[in-house]
Amino acid sequence: MTTLYKWNALLLITGLMLYLIGCAPKVIPYSESTEAPEPNEVAIAHYNWGMASAKNGNFDQAIMELHLAIQNEPGWVMPLFTLGVVYGNQGELDKAIQVWERATQLDADFAKAHYNLAVAYLHKEEKTRSITSLRKAIQIDKEAIASAKADPAFDSIRNTSEFQDILTN
Question: Is the pLDDT at 135 greater than 60, yes or no?
Fold first, then answer.
């Protein structure tokens, strides 16, 4: 698999994630955890502006707004997750990984962040970290199995015993 193909696959996946996040219901969860309090209004406003900017392709503005949302509500994982998606769209894998790791520290059960980490680590050719993140995503959300089976990002490890073990356990 060529590096260009890997980047195109990553951009496609992250673009789809960004689209799905942008089309989400108006209620913005503070966390994947249902018991977390709601974020403050300033953080919500910056998050919404960041989402709108990202949907319009203005990634620099989106990054600024998402950072402001995080600054105003440091415990809110959604701006971190979305910031990772924006960084991924720009090909900034190290930055995407950094914020997705932070999101999983704040909410250990954030399956989407673990899944995105699995894809990003694989693109950085860190197979062991990718498998670990994918395993965690599937432990949290069994629907991640179907995504992993169909996701072209995992083509390079699809036939390995580690990948097959994750899908069957």
Answer: yes
